Amino acid sequence: MDNLIIGTQGWESESWLDSFYQEDMPEDWRLDYYSNFFECVLVEESVWRSWSEEMLEELADMLEGESFWFYLEVVSEFNEQSVHQLQKIKQILQDQASGIILKNINQELPENLKGYTVTLVSKTAKKSGWCWEYEGVYVSGEPVGFVEKLNADGKVQSSMLKQFMQSLPNELNGAPFFVGGEKIDIDQVKNLKIVGEIMGY
Length: 201
Prior knowledge:
This is DUF72 domain-containing protein. By secondary structure, this protein is an alpha/beta fold. 33% of the residues lie in helices and 22% in strands. The chain has one domain. Strand 8 (145-147), helix 6 and strand 9 (176-179) form a beta-alpha-beta unit.
């Protein structure tokens, strides 16, 4: 990637209805609206596991030709069902189904999922190669940023982004960066995006 791109864990937080989505906006329009502001999203495991083939085709049609990337959270051990679903997602969304984010479980990617990149987020384990540590959490493997809680202070945000960008391998000018957690303040995430742009990332 040529620059830093900001995204969130999920795109359907109910708390965003007043501050981001219009209250009367149909639910199936929200991702399209979200993609006007952000170029990537981290999809929770319970969500991508539930996607039907019809839903995947709708996502592919909606975002066709756009620079938008799905990263898929994995919090449990791979099994036949989850591997099959991840294969189907890759087959339909193709390059837009970009990476897998392992949460806490440092497991190897099955051979038939090698089309995905893999990043581990953990307080105890690290993958070989690239690693960024922030507030006691290691993010390692394929370079992707992740924080569970975003500080509202712009100076703290800029310091965090600077640390992340300086950690990247020399050949990379950017990477996805996700804000997670149960309650994500969308205004703070939009501010983080602006901070990154002001810093030239």
